[in-house]
Amino acid sequence: MESQSYQGYNLWGHAILQQADILQPERYAASGTITRHNKLVEASGILGCFDTEEQAQHAGLDWARAWVDSHG
Questions:
Q1: Backbone dihedral angles phi then psi of residue 63, each to the nearest 5 degrees
Q2: Superkingdom of the source (predicted)?
Q3: How far apart are CA 59 and CA 1, in angstroms?
Q4: Number of neighbouring beta carbons within 10 Å of residue 48
Q5: Fewer CB atoms < 10 Å away: N or C end of the chain?
Q6: Considering all CA atoms of the chain, what is the largest pairwise distance in Å, rounded to the nearest integer?
Q7: pLDDT value for 65
Q8: Per-domain boundaries in the chain
């Protein structure tokens, strides 16, 4: 999980390990969460699957920043 502060909100990018079969390479589902004053503001569903944990976390943060920009 990666976090950052943005325009008064705390943003979280999540990477959720997705491995249906042990013989397949690891993939990570991305999601994002937005909080303010320790209260949940908004959470995404699954935003897509990525090859690395870092890519998934960044996708979650990108979604969260876009949400703040469109609701600010």
A1: -60, -45
A2: Bacteria
A3: 11
A4: 14
A5: C
A6: 44
A7: 98
A8: 2-71
Distances, alpha carbon 39 to alpha carbons 9, 15, 17, 35, 42, in Å: 10, 21, 26, 5, 9
The single residue listed with the structure tokens 């909100």 is: 9
DSSP string of 31-71? EEEEEETTEEEEE----EEESSHHHHHHHHHHHHHHHHHHH
47 in Cβ contact with 61 (< 8 Å): no
Q: What secondary structure letter does DSSP report for 19?
A: -
- Amino acid, single-letter form, for residue 43: A
Q: Going residue by residue through the chain (72 aa), what tens digit of pLDDT does each one get?
A: 899 999 999 999 999 999 777 777 889 999 999 999 999 999 999 999 999 999 999 999 999 999 999 996
pTM here is 0.90
